[in-house]
Amino acid sequence: MTAIEISGLTKEYGDLTAVDDLTLTVDDGEIFGFLGPNGAGKSTTINMLLDFTRPTTGSATVLGYDTQTEADEISPRVGVLPEGFDIYPRLSGRRHIEFASETKAAEDDPDAILERVGLSAEDAERPAGDYSKGMRQRLATGMALVGDPDLLIMDEPSSGLDPHGIREMQELVRSEAERGTTVFFSSHILEHVEAVCDRVGVLNEGELVAVDTIDGLREEIGGGATMTLTLADAANGAREVAGAVPGITDVTASGRTLECTITDPAAKAGVVTALDNAGATIRDLRIEEVSLESLFTALTNGDGSEPGDGTGAQSGTADEAALETETEVPR
Ligand SMILES: Nc1ncnc2c1ncn2[C@@H]1O[C@H](COP(=O)(O)OP(=O)(O)OP(=O)(O)O)[C@@H](O)[C@H]1O
């Protein structure tokens, strides 16, 4: 069974098409990242899946049930972490979880759920109005986990969390998936999506511009990688050798450094072997994959990716080094 099946879903607000003819399938047990800049239509899509908003045209099923005619079957089986969750300031954290359990007629142990989302027994007793933004987000996540849902829909789950909280959230998403829960995870923060998702769908101005694994997307846009080799001797003589390896598109030599642009992952080993065969000694090797930042910009034409605009791109820029996978092989 597919967890989510979206077919030609469109939502218009007057002249604005918030979601434009979206067709997408999310498989059972998958962690699917729904990625896109601010205003791309992610929340609108989620709202249609939950029947909070009706589509202008198109249809969708969630866990095999039609979102418009069988929404009552869907809600008990789905845990939702909404964007901008409102707490009841005077109620304790535990009471929030109990409330969610009563609503879903579930029999979860509130303390076990609070522990899973990183709220202590002491926190559980405090009024949620006193919670920090990150603690509120954890509480909202706990409420979403009540009733052991088959599908977890999370709208910007890392919002308000510090790096430690983000790591915990990612572990939680993974452990939910291991329990068999499908996770549909919306975010504009690229590295969060890469860290947990099996596949991603990229939405831009309401349109789905790509669906693939992150590696698949990298290959699709041909971003490739850059391989920098430090040789024992001047690199100029090795330039031609590296350039002849299939999958290498460009080679520059400077001093003892050789820089190769790679479009085929197999070319990495090919260069090392070719240089070795030609008698060159490799002292150091460094590979930089295309950053998610540039991948996202390529797919969304830079929309929403301006540094400092408050979108995930800002965090992406600050953490650019962290976004790039680097492999160093000292020799
Ligand atoms: N109720 C509404 N009335 C009119 N326009 C709306 C409404 N809800 C959303 N929109 C518009 O639809 C577009 C998509 O918004 P949506 O909230 O789905 O984007 P998003 O991808 O979730 O963005 P963000 O990452 O900022 O949450 C935006 O242009 C938004 O202004």
Automatic annotation (TrEMBL):
One of its GO terms (molecular function) is ATP binding. Keywords: ATP-binding, Nucleotide-binding, Transport. It holds the Pfam family ABC_tran. Residues 299-331 are annotated as: Disordered. SUPFAM superfamilies: P-loop containing nucleoside triphosphate hydrolases (SSF52540). Residues 4-230 form the ABC transporter domain. PROSITE patterns: ABC_TRANSPORTER_2. Residues 321-331 have a biased composition (Acidic residues). Belongs to the ABC transporter superfamily. This is ABC transporter ATP-binding protein. It comes from Natrinema zhouii. The lineage of its organism: Archaea, Methanobacteriati, Methanobacteriota, Stenosarchaea group, Halobacteria.
